Amino acid sequence: MNTLQAKPFNILLIGDDCLDVYQFGTVDRISPEAPVPVFNFCREEHRPGMAGNVLTNLQALGCRVEFLHGDTSTKTRLIDTRSKQHIVRIDKDAECSPIEFVTAIPPLYDAVVISDYNKGTVTYDLIQEVRQGFHGPVFVDTKKTDLAQLEGCIVKINKLEHSRVISECSDLIVTLGDRGATWNDIHFTAKKVDVADVCGAGDTFLASLCYKYLESNGDMVTAINFAIRASAIAVQHLGVYAPRSEEHTSELQSH
């Protein structure tokens, strides 16, 4: 069976790190102490989240990645094993100081990827410093609203984040969930799939976009279509997920 032959691109990844904790259990009754469900714990799983999930996805595509991040936040999700429904999410956000470069970025990277969840690791100044000092493509996924300050980067945000922006940049990709994405007034459609969990789909999109952009020598249309297909694979799995090479190949053959 032929699988995707990943190229070993060198990537500098900068962003907010997170540990995703999944606690699985069952709910059989309501507490006599308060009108809340009693969660019977069964097992626990740990997975990298936020920029850590971008790292996992880039590595799954065969990329060599150096990861610069701040302190690690934790998101704990309680999930009912029968319905697969999230009962509650408990966030413990780290207080991160901004990353600062003491030397110039060495010219050994094919791209820089910035995964900004607005936890304090990434500032406008940092993004601008990277854009000015690095001579390759810079991909940014951000929750910031003044996108004009990110001019010169390839910026990806989702529909909700786009509704909050106060300015835009010229190279902006807006993801629309099951409706695909837009870029430069072009609408890219997505194949309908059974969605188990949208958590981490944006991370998969960002990593896949970067990889395919490099692999296709800067063909943005090809890169966006590839990223949409990769995200469609990810949302069919519970929790954050990095598609394997054979899944990419199978998805490509189905189109």
Concise structural overview:
With 255 residues, the chain is an alpha/beta fold. The chain has helices at 51-60, 124-133, 159-162, 201-215, 220-234, 245-253, and strands spanning 10-30, 37-50, 64-80, 86-92, 111-116, 138-142, 154-158, 172-175, 181-183, 186-188.
Structural commentary:
The chain is α/β, with parallel strands linked by helices. The protein contains 6 helices and 10 strands. It is globular and about 60 Å long. The mean pLDDT is 92.
Runs in which pLDDT lies below 50 for 5 or more consecutive residues are none
Query: Quaternary status of these chains?
Result: single chain
Portion of residues within helices: 10-25%
Please state the overall shape, judged from the principal axes of the Cα atoms.
globular
CA-atom Rg in angstroms: 19 Å
The rounded distance between the terminal residues' Cα atoms is 17 Å
Residue-averaged pLDDT, rounded?
Answer: 92
Strand content: 25-35%
Helix and strand composition category = alpha/beta
Sheet bearing the most strands, described?
10 strands, mixed
Number of strands: 10
Number of helices: 6
What letter string, H or E per element, gives the SSE order? Answer: EEHEEEHEEHEEEHHH
What topology does this entry show?
Layout: E1 10-30, E2 37-50, H1 51-60, E3 64-80, E4 86-92, E5 111-116, H2 124-133, E6 138-142, E7 154-158, H3 159-162, E8 172-175, E9 181-183, E10 186-188, H4 201-215, H5 220-234, H6 245-253
Parallel strand pairs: 1-3, 1-5, 5-6, 6-7, 7-8
Antiparallel strand pairs: 1-2, 3-4, 8-9, 9-10
